[in-house]
## 1
Amino acid sequence: MPNTVNHALALRIKELLLKKGMTRYRLAMNSGLTHSTLKNIMHETIKDNLLSTTILIASGFDMTISEFLDSPLFDETNLNI
């Protein structure tokens, strides 16, 4: 079943938090986002995530945006756009 972009973003963050052994708080600190912004992204209460926000999240994981988006979650066949 296709995901929304917001759902794919939340899933990717959860996946990387587990893989890197990070907390959401640490990601927020590393990325420069507020904890509440990150919480809203994770709970999918933000309707449209900006690319600039996604770039900050990727940098919080010490990744490029390309590395962050390199996941089947973001394959257009898996997304409901």
## 2
Amino acid sequence: MHTTDYLSATALSKKTAATLDSLEKGETEKLIILKNNTPKAILLSIEAYEIMEEEMEDLRLATLAFARINSFKPEEALSHKEMMEKFGI
């Protein structure tokens, strides 16, 4: 795992191409962009962003599944046979 780097907005504007290349090659995992020494944005490669999006979706689905498991009432569930009859399969 790479370390997190900090970069000023001014430096980013001067080194945009090199910064993007570094992210794309995996030399830098993420960059926190500073303006007046205050974090203002995070810059990620597309690959890192897509991985993060997939992980968030997985967590969302897992949370939904756990909520459904916790609220499941067997007495209200339909059997396989009842489902087949209901949907005419």
## 3
Amino acid sequence: MTEGQKRIPKWILIVSGFFAFMEIMVSFAICFSPESVLETVDLNAKGIDYLVYMWAVRQFALGFIFAFATFKKSIPMLMIAYIFFLVMFVGDFFVGISQKENSLIIAAVVMCIISSAMIFALNKRK
């Protein structure tokens, strides 16, 4: 173990592992049961399956990145993953505003706060 690996608290690894697991599970739900995630989308529309699979792959990639960074106990890798998470949820916030969907806005704000707090916590460990 290197010096950088010793300094990551277990709670950060647990939270990061949880996010990895959740992102991978969301990707499977989107891929194998899109109607459970996309209630308001016409899944029979031409080309929608392409978008659904693109979204599922995005979620899987983020989950894999979190899992790998957590497994490696790498502060720089976790920082990049949480920065990506933050950018993604800032985007979701603006999508929620444009769609007037309060639940997406609230979830995005909460996840932006969590992502920012994790970035701050990891930055203190550098």
